[in-house]
Amino acid sequence: MTDSRAAAPRLTTVRRGVVVAAAVGALVLAVTLGVLVGPAGISVRAVVLELVGALPGVDVSSGLTPGQQAVLWEIRMPRVALGLLVGATLAIAGAAYQGVFRNPLADPYLLGVSSGAGLGATLAIVAGGTIAGLGIPLAAFAGGVVAVTATYLLGRTVGGARSEVVVILAGVAVAAFANAGQTFVQQFHDDSLRQVYAWLLGRLATDGWHDVVVVLPYVAVSIAVIALFRRTLDVMAVGDLEAASLGIRPDRVRLILVAAATLGTAAVVSVSGLIGFVGIVVPHTVRLLVGPGHRLLLPLSIVVGGAFLVLADLVARVAMSPAELPIGVVTAAIGAPFFLYVLRRGRVTS
């Protein structure tokens, strides 16, 4: 009996090590394919030589034309970097939401972020690309933040913000209101429907490194705050009363984590549009593989989320080349069947 008990922790450690190695390998593969593959007609050898030649002290000629170099350095690489940031942020935000609300089906859009961002982007689009001096990304960011703020204010008014259920229901109400407002605006501006739907379906098209630089500070703050509370999330899994008895203030922790997750989500959504299922599927998959402990769940969600979205974007780029699929369609095509499979097997675990 002693040997079998000692072997169980060793097997668990080995399994987690394998999962970590597989996640890192998937990330490396995703980044490599994202940089190498594309419809621009650049050979893999030339790309490799160009990247090697960019290393300090290495003088190698890739033979790429200035136009091909621009495609590599100003389109492909920023797009891969943006995919990593968006995927990682949505995944860790999903893990945080699932932890604070003790609901494995929660996602980063739970409290109306997507609806508020969609309304903000729609208003900016129908106004000709700007509203109150804000461009589409800033309008989407502001809309997402305003929606979550309204959710918390409504939740506090109704239930004193003492219950996560009240907050979730307030989020449903705010999301419904924002969706109604968006539909109303679209009804009177049907000439902009195509652009609105293109934004709503998600995209990672970039113009250089601008979007990456803009969202990076918000993503860094969001991830740092969520990671700081990883042990607290484990304690909160047992319930608010038990957590309070251990000296934790659940309402305060929930507010901080929701604010951090919303900040990161609103930032990446403002430049990528609405990309669904990443925040549900990735944390839930990682939880099934390594367990519910957030010490490992959060960093693995970052790695797997980034890899997943870069690979999904690669499919979006090449599946119907030279045309491009909306990345939200790809993530839904991958995520929805997996989600239904998990529900069918009854393996949704907290």
From TrEMBL:
Membrane topology, record value: Multi-pass membrane protein
Domain of life (superkingdom): Bacteria
Entry's Gene Ontology molecular function annotations: transmembrane transporter activity
GO CC annotations, alphabetized: plasma membrane
Compartments reported by the entry: Cell membrane
Keywords: Cell membrane, Membrane, Transmembrane, Transmembrane helix, Transport
SUPFAM superfamilies: ABC transporter involved in vitamin B12 uptake, BtuC
The family this protein is said to belong to: Belongs to the binding-protein-dependent transport system permease family. FecCD subfamily.
Designated name of the protein: ABC heme uptake porter, permease component
